[in-house]
Task: structure prediction
Amino acid sequence: MEKINFLKPSKEKMNLYLYIGMSLVLFSFIDILSNTFLGINLTSFLPNLLSYFTPLIIGVLGLNYIRIEYSGIKILDKVNKSINSNTFNAVLTLFIIFILIKYVPPTLNWFIFDADFAGSTKQDCTSGGACWVFVKIWFKRFMYGMYPNAEQWRINAAFFILLLSIGTIFVFPQKFKKYIIIFLLFVYPIIALNLISGGIFGLKWIETGAWGGLSLTFIVSAFALIFCFPIGMFLAMGRRSELPAIKYCSICFIELWRGVPLITVLFMSAVMFPMFLPDGTFMDKLMRVIIAITLFEAAYMAEVIRGGLQALPRGQYDAAKSLGMGYWRLHYLVILPQALKLVIPGIANTFLALVKDTPLIFVVGLLELAGMIGLAKTNPKWLGMAAEGYVFAGLVFWVICYAMSRYSQNLEKKLSTER
Result:
């Protein structure tokens, strides 16, 4: 009678090993499923800690029995190659699957199936799940902050103009795109600021302290994105300059701003910077915050762009100079288009970090989306609703960041060339 090695399955006894392995894996799944959905623990007779890990141990043992190299069964070979190539991968695979089985259904119950969507007060939330009534009632504040309800159309109009302008870039011919970009960079910011703040053309003046919510997140992010990119580009070029004064000034600026936490920069801009202004000079807090975030992110952007500049071979510079191009024309027509294309992922990553850094402006008294949620959760009528608010904020930020990420990937694919 042939000996059977239960620690190392072989192809000769493949059917036996498959039967044993599949039975063990099936038992591990039945155990975890019955425990999750029926509250029945098939291994309750074991000590608590051992009982908790028994499905994982049995499942790993079962996967070990079906880990047969070149079995000739396509599905089995594919499974073994993908998720069962060794014991560590088997443990990791089952651990992830069991975690999903154990915790995804309760999460979905809280998030959707047991959640309350209808009502107008906290008392209407009686199902035991998420109370989305909180988000519904506070939705306008989460979007516009303390901006007056009667004037919120101005924020909507400003963002509508922005979206319309961006949309025309994809519709109009190439020769008109540069004019649209010039409008977005230099004209639109003035229009948007005057429209939202008011004080002209009969519009009511709204102080920036009343701005808030997601609209403030977009405002801070948009202005910082617009200005940190060109500043970072000039800093990157300055750091590679052959002129010592420009080079070392750029290095000092970049290293100084990269070495200081953003929260410190925001405190400095809001508290200490006004002390250095001449008497009678006033600069709005929001303006100071936007400038601080812009300069902070510009330092990181400079290093990303410098990486692209250094990645280009020296021959590109020599070829452009041989055509009689000066410094600025050389960079504008030859160097920067290639360098920026190489660092699209890094630029997108910096932009994503900038958007996610905007909640820090809450520490200087500006209530963007996360700040408004922090304010709403302290309302006596809505105590205990912090989880719903922050889950909502997390979803909003995820949608924004995912959209930016997908756009950067599409742009990278569109501009990719064989090297």
Summary: DSSP finds 17 helices and no strands in the chain. The longest helix spans residues 386-415.
